[in-house]
Amino acid sequence: MLSHLLKYKLRVVVFATTLFCSCDLSNSQPVNLDSDKIVPAGTGYNIRMVYTDSTRVKAILQAPLYLDYSNLSLPYSEFPEGLKVTFLDEFMNENIVLADFGTLYNSTKIIDLVGNVSLTSSDGSILNTEQLYWDASNDWIFTEREFRFVGPEYNVLANRLDTNKEFTKFQTGKLTGTVAVKEETAPE
């Protein structure tokens, strides 16, 4: 029994000695621990993208920095230094969106705008919030964050918004503020 144990220990010592003696540290290379780091497929500076539909300009996006991650399984684009999007309706009226950061998810056409988001419509109405989503496929805007919407006849604060881009169909959460209502009298 002792000889079996002695042979086992001897094999372990020989294996460990061979392992340590065969390493040459003078010619070693550093190990890259960031091998899973996500790297963009492309980068653009001071970009201007024009979105058209049936030869009509629908939107113009401008950003100081554009990062293209179309090389990933869920492709997206980032605008880490902010962006400005000018939306044009059929009468060429401008609605302008500004944000500190933006992400465009290519497969869903959802744009996530974050930080000091401001939407100024052609009639002078302004919506401010910290995060706003725009569904480009359905021309739909939504947020679960608190927002303020100010115009000539209203000043509203609410905690949720779900609306079309014209703000003709919308739902909100708890709403406070003032809204001008036109009173009509019934014909006699």
Query: What overall form do the CA principal axes indicate?
Result: elongated
Overall radius of gyration: 29 Å
Could you tell me the strand content as a percent range?
over 45%
For CATH, the homologous superfamily of the domain at 42-144 is named as Lipopolysaccharide (LPS) transport protein A like domain
Q: Outline of this structure?
A:
This protein is mostly beta strands and 188 residues long. The protein has one helix and 14 strands; from the N terminus they run H-E-E-E-E-E-E-E-E-E-E-E-E-E-E. It starts with a helix and ends in a 9-residue tail after the last strand.
Structure description:
This protein has one helix at residues 2-21; strands spanning 42-53, 56-69, 76-79, 83-88, 94-99, 101-105, 110-120, 126-135, 140-143, 147-151, 154-158, 161-164, 170-172, 175-179. The protein is mainly beta. It has a domain at 42-144: lipopolysaccharide transport protein A fold, CATH 2.60.450. It has a six-stranded antiparallel barrel. A hairpin with a 6-residue loop joins strand 2 (56-69) and strand 3. The longest helix is centred in the N-terminal third of the chain and has 20 residues, at 2-21. It is elongated. Mean pLDDT is 81; it is low at 12-23.
